[in-house]
Model the fold of this input.
Amino acid sequence: MPDGPLCAACHATAVRTRGSCAACRNDRLLPGMDQAGRRLCPPCAGIDKDFTCPRCGTEWNLVNGICEWCQLADLLDELLVGDVDLEALRARLLQAARPDRIVIWLYASHARDLLRGLAAGAVPLTHTGLDAFENRRSADHVRGLLVAVGLLPKRDDGLARFDRWVANHIAEHAATADELKMLSQFATWNLRPELVKRARGEAVSEGQVNGATQRIRAAGALLTWLRARGRELAACTQADIDAWFASPPSTRVHAVPFLRWAMATRRAPKLQLTRRRFGNARVLDHAERLEILRRLLDRSTGCIEHRVAAMMLVLLGQPFTRIAALTLSDVVVDRDELSVRLGEGLVPVPPPFAGMITDLIGTRPNLNTASNPTSPFLFPGRSADKHLLPSTLRTAAIQMGIDIMGARSGALRQLVLDCPPTVVAEALGYSHQAMDRHARRAGSPWASYAALRRDVAPPALSDARV
Done:
């Protein structure tokens, strides 16, 4: 390059960056850069190489004399040969902002085998057919694209994830055929209908699936524990059950739904079950939260999407399930103030944290592939038309050394010290009962605040101390 030699990574970015040239203002490829760091088109940068594709006329990085879209089209035409019409999938893949990402994905043999199999009919164009494919990650990726283009009907991915877990892992928690039969019946007749009921017509959430699988694991652990004591479930006593709940770990409480089901179906005698006891989890104080927020402002702490999600947890006490589902329309910029819609109305985000959200909007991940080229989500996911999984954001926060429960509880208790619990509940999308509990535990002067008083105007959440 005229401005000096480039490493492979910088060169790859330079020949795949389009926009308005800082010198001539024309919209074209910008492989060059001036001394001020502004992007330049080839003529203005003094680059004499022609990047125009002779086949389609696109100005882009050329591979073997053609642009990467034409390269991808040739590759897809080679793979999608068969009686099954996958033209809609082909068109979606060619919409990728970075076709080289698709080409790299197709280097993997399992990706090529999947597309060839779908086109030839060797892999049935059904959810069941994709479930049976050997590489689940590729199958799920292509499934999302097929659903997005209308070649497959939508299905409840959460419920499918639960069914897959039961099929693949339930045997790990049963030592005998009778135990396996009992756990399978518990999963099929109790947990699965309960998942559908709790979803209330919506997709089963990741947290609901995790809770259901935790109950199966606890049930298997209980059966193993009873067997070690020389007991069968049908002959266990009140002393056995009391000893089970009195011993660590605290996750043993997740066996309660299994025991209730077993007693209701006469697989276990009628026994008295312990009430669930909630431990006193640590709550981060104001100074500890401020230290975390300072670290999140540092770019070296992590990628922007993970830092923004963690900031919303620590600053606004939001759960990752709600954070992951935020859309661009939930972020409102009015002059110099940025607000986020979390519950009823908008919650102002103070600087410099508002700047983090602005940076994220300009550099959202996962937009360069065919999955989410026009994603409405603030945190676009890797699957077509989906947001990032809450577990992805949760894992990133843990890796950044954040005590998730402590930070969230600390944020909510600080807010109810500064504002009436009713105001916090409505602004942040929580129930009034939950905020009242936080207010009582925090010793809030607003704990007895009367929400229906009309003669006193409550303070705005934006007045809360950060």
Summary: The first strand starts at residue 18 and ends at 20. Strands lie at 18-20, 27-29, 32-33, 39-40, 62-63, 66-67, 331-334, 337-343, 345-349. The mean pLDDT is 90. The chain is about 50% helix and 5% strand.
